[in-house]
Design goal:
Helix content of chain B: 55-70%
Shape of chain B: rod-shaped
Structural class of chain B: alpha+beta
Distance between the termini of chain A: 14 Å
Radius of gyration of chain A: 14 Å
Oligomer: heterodimer
Chain lengths: ~150, ~750
């Protein structure tokens, strides 16, 4: 919490949803740096500094990851697994943010060590409230582990 | 009294056990007594009318009386032969001495010698008789020669009284001899006559027919006892007049062996002993035991005649046959019961037809040791009975060759199927209906049993044996029971298979429903989140007067609504694939390609895509509209994922047959390709690879569904940058007829 901007990684294939998340977070000035990734592959590339993300300075590791489950190329659960199986990355809190209420998805997420499971609410006010609380909790109240970098 | 007792004692003879010997003993005794009596009478009476001759007669009686007493004693001691010889010698001696002393051969001397010959002939020994005769002749000639030479002593001249006395003596002797013999002879004849009657009555009253056959087969039969008339209904003379008559009434099946044995025993002269059948005059079959032995002459052993018997053993044979039938029948029933139990067990425990039928045919073949057992089932179009299970190597070959029979009277199976009845052909060569099968060359009897369940014929079972006339009506009943069991088992197995299929379908549908629910909760929610979220911002935009963002947000809402609409439409479409089916029809695959190409002409032109159709295609049996959808979807996808390919092409073609003999069709593109990791996932509901490319992720799910409903498979070969080839199989019109 050395005053440097909190890095939020948003992995979301639905551009509209990403816009909603970013807009609500920005409105409340909770997060000043949200990076959006459209698919699981590019998110993993960034986390592992692969491909176009080899430049460490411009691609710092996030303090929290907001992860959708249904993603093209690499599925959300597989992204989660990859993070939690990596010694370098497993300390980063992963918040699953999805439209699915299916028990199967909830179970699979926690089984793979998700730190939280949130369902996107249908309704503007509810959506905003969730994003407020999410911001306060994960980026305010919650003490994040120091980035190892 | 004493005298009478003595006489009785003298006159009673020891039993020689033989009529002839008894007569001889009697004759000798009487003759000896006569001799004693007359010599005593002559001796006592001669002094009164010829006192000069007393000395002579005294000497004579002195020889005769002791000699004859000795002879009588010999007879009583059973020395008969010795007695005869002694008597003969004594008589010869008396006659010869008298002839010499009486001065030569005279009439009384001749009579004397005749008596000597007669007596010596008493013993049935020809040689003795002949020798005695020659001795008498020689003695006579010698005396006659001596008389002629005059060397005989001066003859004694008897007075007429003595001469007549001597004659009377001779006549009495001859009479005695003759009386004894004639009486005994009469007695013998009478006795043998009553004996014959007794034997004959015995022979003709025992429950067996007796016959005497001449050794010369062509000569008349000498004797057939009257029982034959009761046994066979033909008169006795039928057999005696024609010695071969019995061979004419032999049972046709026995003629050959009986005549062979008859000829053989005639040749070897062994005892003929056989059991065979004769046909009576009224046409009934009688079993007889025939035993005949060759009777030979006692002395020289020449064959005389065949003595034989015919004993009626019909009832015994029948009992034997009944017992045989009973044991045989029971054994057979036991096997049938055992088999029925085994078939029933298989029928209730094996629910897969493909496993049950081979089991059943093997069971029946093994238990009854039949040559071949096979099961035919009627095909769907009710035209052919297709061999589904069969025993042995030949059975496997026939099944592999797709052996099938028309449902018509041209075969046993066809007949039993069309008539719903069992049929047997005992000597199959003579039965016109039998289908001569080159795979089963040893079949001699065949049985066809219909498989009927709920009154409907579903197939038939064929049972074949290498033995002629192997099946009876009873077998049909027993095996029909088994056939019914099999029919019901097939029905059960079919119902079970249907249930399994239904169950699998239900399971698949369940899974799909789950997937659907999941999808609705996720993918339908997703545009809702967008719509409701941006509706909130729309209000804020309007309040802040930021019309640019207002329009942007409005567009997001509109596209989300469109997306929802599309999703709903495709979900509806997906659910229809399973529910609404058009009846399958035979359609050339080329027609489908042409129809699809026409529908997609606009898209193909827009993407500048060249469509290549190569090869020849079979006629498929499928839902024409759905298959068109498949081809349309696949071509559409190919066009959609072309990337920046400068010369985009889509090729449709056909590969070799797959393991199920179904043709493999393919649709190949030279587009962006798909990484092997995603080859499975792309067929899943709402799984999309490229979020940038339009689509709901349902298209390939629908394609897969349609192919699977037709019993086909779909898969792909593809790598990024190398294009994709989608393969799928479909049933042909030909397949459809076979299953």
């Amino acid at each position: 919490m050395a005053g440097e901007p909190i890095q939020v990684m948003l992995v979301e294939d639905n551009v509209d949803h990403a816009e909603l998340v970013i807009r609500t977070l920005e409105e409340h000035r909770i997060a000043n740096k949200v990076r959006h990734f459209l698919d699981g592959q590019s998110a993993l590339d960034h986390l592992f500094h692969r491909g176009e993300y080899t430049d460490l300075a411009n691609n710092p590791r996030p303090h929290v990851i907001l992860l959708d489950l249904r993603l093209p190329r690499v599925d959300g659960i597989d992204v989660l697994k990859a993070i939690k199986e990596s010694d370098e990355l497993k300390a980063i809190p992963v918040v699953v943010l999805t439209t699915s209420e299916a028990e199967k998805d909830v179970a699979r997420a926690y089984y793979n060590h998700a730190n939280s499971y949130l369902v996107k609410p249908v309704g503007f006010e509810e959506f905003k409230k969730l994003m407020d609380d999410l911001g306060f909790y994960w980026l305010g109240w919650n003490t994040n582990p120091h980035s190892k970098e | 009294m004493l005298y009478l007792k003595l006489m009785k004692k003298i006159l009673s003879f020891p039993a020689y056990g033989n009529e002839e010997l008894n007569t001889v003993a009697q004759t000798i005794t009487y003759l000896s007594l006569g001799l004693i009596l007359f010599s005593l009478i002559f001796m006592a009476t001669v002094p009164f009318f010829a006192p000069g001759l007393f000395g002579r007669f005294l000497r004579q009686a002195g020889i005769i009386v002791p000699a004859c007493t000795g002879i009588i004693l010999l007879v009583r001691r059973k020395k008969l032969q010795l007695a005869v010889m002694a008597l003969t010698t004594l008589l010869w001696l008396v006659v010869t001495i008298n002839s010499i002393t009486a001065g030569g051969v005279s009439a009384p001397i001749v009579i004397g010698y005749a008596i000597v010959i007669l007596v010596s002939g008493l013993i049935s020994n020809r040689t003795t008789g002949v020798i005695t005769t020659f001795i008498c002749i020689a003695t006579g000639i010698s005396i006659a020669a001596a008389e002629a030479a005059g060397i005989l002593p001066e003859p004694i001249t008897y007075s007429p009284a003595i001469r007549i006395s001597i004659y009377i003596f001779f006549f009495l002797m001859i009479m005695t001899f003759q009386r004894v013999n004639v009486v005994n002879m009469m007695e013998l004849i009478k006795r043998s006559k009553s004996n014959e009657a007794r034997y004959r009555s015995l022979l003709e009253n025992i429950p067996t027919t007796t016959y005497i056959n001449n050794t010369d087969a062509n000569a008349k039969t000498e004797y057939v006892s009257p029982q034959v008339e009761q046994l066979l209904g033909y008169p006795r003379n039928a057999f005696t007049d024609d010695p071969l008559f019995w061979t004419k009434i032999l049972h046709p099946d026995d003629v050959e062996k009986v005549l062979a044995e008859s000829h053989r025993t005639a040749e070897t002269e062994e005892v003929f002993k056989m059991q065979y059948r004769l046909v009576t005059k009224s046409g009934q079959i009688v079993w007889v035991k025939d035993e005949a032995a060759l009777v030979r002459d006692n002395e020289n052993g020449t064959p005389l005649y065949w003595l034989g018997t015919w004993t009626d053993i019909t009832s015994r044979k029948q009992a034997e046959e009944q017992q045989y039938d009973l044991v045989n029948g029971m054994t057979k029933r036991t096997i049938q019961l055992q088999t029925a139990a085994d078939v029933a067990r298989a029928a209730t425990s094996i629910l897969d037809i493909n496993e049950l039928l081979p089991n059943v045919v093997e069971l029946i073949r093994d238990h009854f040791d039949y040559y071949y057992v096979g099961i035919f089932l009627i095909d769907e179009v009710d035209q052919w009975a297709v061999l589904r299970a069969a025993t042995g190597e030949m059975g496997t070959k026939m099944i592999e060759a797709g052996h099938q029979l028309k449902l018509e009277d041209s075969s046993m199976i066809g007949w039993s199927l069309t008539h719903k009845e069992a049929r047997i052909a005992l000597d199959v060569g003579e039965d016109a209906v039998r289908f001569i099968n080159p795979h089963l060359p040893l079949t001699r009897s065949e049985m066809a049993l219909p498989l009927i369940t709920h009154g409907e014929v579903i197939g038939a079972m064929t049972i074949q044996s290498e033995k002629p006339a192997a099946f009876s009506r009873v077998d049909i009943t027993a095996l029909q029971v088994m056939a019914d069991l099999v029919a019901n088992a097939i029905e059960n197995a079919r119902l079970f298979t249907d249930r399994v299929i239904l169950n699998n379908e239900l399971e698949a549908q369940n899974e799909e429903l789950e997937q659907f629910t999941y999808t609705v909760s996720h993918d339908l929610r997703s545009p809702l989140v967008t719509i409701r979220g941006f509706l909130g911002y729309l209000k804020l935009d309007a309040e802040s007067g930021d019309m640019e963002r207002f329009n942007k947000d409005l567009n997001r809402i509109a596209s989300a609504v469109d997306k929802m609409q599309a999703l709903l439409n495709e979900l509806l479409e997906l659910s229809r694939v399973g529910r609404i089916t058009n009846p399958p029809e035979d359609v050339p695959f080329e027609d489908i390609i042409q129809e699809t190409a026409a529908l997609l002409s606009v898209q193909l032109e827009a993407g500048n895509v060249q469509l290549i159709v190569s090869g020849k295609y079979p006629v498929i049996h499928a839902d024409r509209i759905r298959i068109r959808e498949v081809v349309q979807n696949l071509i559409n996808n190919a066009v959609k994922f072309m990337g920046d390919q400068p010369a985009p092409t889509v090729e449709i073609g056909m590969d070799d047959l797959d393991s199920d003999d179904k043709p493999i069709f393919f649709i190949r593109d030279n587009g962006i390709g798909i990484h092997p990791d995603y080859h499975e996932r792309i067929f899943g509901l709402f799984n999309r690879l490229d979020p940038d490319v339009e689509g709901t992720g349902i298209g390939l799910t629908i394609v897969k569904r349609i192919i699977e409903i037709h019993g086909g498979r779909i898969w792909l070969e593809s790598e990024p940058g190398k294009g994709s080839t989608f393969f799928f199989t479909l049933p042909t019109a030909k397949d459809q007829k076979r299953t």
